[in-house]
């Protein structure tokens, strides 16, 4: 199956170094973790590109809004390298497929959610914007821009109150920082020294509105000023930088020193949602962005370090293609939720709400 391979290859620059032609000269254990990270980024890309195909083909089986993460993978996978599933939390906007896969969601479960099937992560009732898996601390995607920020601060409050040592990654887009919730959440999180890591995934546009047209301050890390917490820009296309910089924020949070504000600068290769002709972009801008594709950058780096061979990358691509194809087929064959369950899981049954 060539689709996923082609799409991955499309963005990949030719490696600039001579690399071993097969796995014989590479110790299979050396670099295993790095190759796993690369593989997860590739898996996310393939999942998203397959989602694009499924959404746009005749007889479309995916309904509702759908926002793809292609181009931003290093941020989610870098986060997952630091994430402790037993005590950390993650909360997100609606561009949430990549983070869920990075935390280990089975692609079949993801496609089932997109297809509205009972086996989906939200039993097929949430769709693209509501990928959740509370069992690993994934508190999901949220459709209201900026709505997740106070929730993230609240979850970090619970971690602080219960002294769990956990941290909460609260993701948002660059557009979300203009919401009032941004001010409220950052202020309280810092005032109470909550273990909240605010991550702005700055892909340069809020829908089609460039930063220059939506933020009075162009350096978005500066938007963290005034909250008495570390605030900095991070290269969001470089997974090693993401891990190093986010890692400092994790340490700070776990040590009870309070929140951090990180602006991960990146680019999205697809439109905002599925009906976006991207007229706000030039061809030149897109070409330049592809040169900094996070997957290609990491692939080249691993090759240069002798941690990856041509044979290994080809094997990964083949495995991922098979995995994604099989996930789509299985999800497609899965059942829809029974009609009588249509009002289940929609509203809290009990009022006032009784926590278990
Ligand atoms: C409160 C609210 N206002 C408007 C919208 C419509 N809307 C959906 S996405 C979006 C742009 C957000 O862009 P950004 O925060 O940069 O996130 P990205 O899509 O780049 O991940 C807008 C305005 C919404 N969902 N919620």
Query: The biggest beta sheet, please?
Result: 5 strands, parallel
- The stretches of 5 or more residues where confidence is low (pLDDT under 50) are 1-24
Total number of beta strands: 7
CATH architecture: 3-Layer(aba) Sandwich
Instruction: Estimate nothing, just give the exact number of structural domains.
Output: 1
Which ligands, by name, code or SMILES, are bound? Answer: thiamine diphosphate
Structural class: alpha/beta
CATH class type: Alpha Beta
The proportion of residues forming helix, as a percent range, comes to 40-55%
What does this protein look like?
With 356 residues, the chain is α/β, with parallel strands linked by helices. The chain has a single domain (32-333), classed as Rossmann fold. The chain is 42% helix and 9% strand. It has helices at residues 3-11, 32-56, 73-82, 97-102, 107-114, 148-162, 180-191, 211-214, 239-254, 283-290, 294-304, 310-333; strands at 89-91, 168-173, 196-202, 205-206, 209-210, 231-235, 260-265. It has a five-stranded parallel sheet with strand order 1-2-3-7-6, with helices on both faces. It has a two-stranded antiparallel sheet with strand order 4-5. Helix 2 crosses helix 12 (310-333). The protein is globular, with a radius of gyration of 20 Å. The chain starts with a helix and ends in a 23-residue tail after the last helix. 46% of the residues are buried. Mean pLDDT is 92; it is low at 1-24. Bound molecules: thiamine diphosphate. Residues 67, 93, 95, 143-145, 173-176, 203, 206-207, 272 line the site of thiamine diphosphate (TPP).
